[in-house]
Amino acid sequence: MAQIDTQAIIDALTLKLRTEYPDAVIDNEEAPQGIRPGAILVNLTNAGQSQLNPHRFHRTPQFDVLYFSDNSNAECAAVADNLCTVLDTITTPGGDILHGSGMTWSIEDFVLHFLVSYNHNVIRPNEQITMETLDFQEEGR
Question: Which InterPro entries does the record cross-reference, listed alphabetically (predicted)?
């Protein structure tokens, strides 16, 4: 199991979307000028972290997958239905499988906003603090 970070999840998301929608322009940065119908944009909307024990943390990143339609709410709804299946599980470049949760979506001005979270745990290695040298002198009787 590799250490999971936000970029690994974004890479897994975009790879899965490229496999499902090979003809779509898929980006994970700002929306480019002149975005065309069928384009997909992946954004991290918010994230959180809670400590489970001294070295283990639970992270809750949520992503917004935007799909730009050509004046069709029905097309957006069909893509949302498909994304529920496609984004149910993703595999990070390190081989970790993450399950999507909290999937919700809305359609505004022929743009689908599909929200999905990939909650996971991370472990921070225990930092070893080494002692300085200890001089010990034993006296015998």
Answer: Phage_tail_terminator
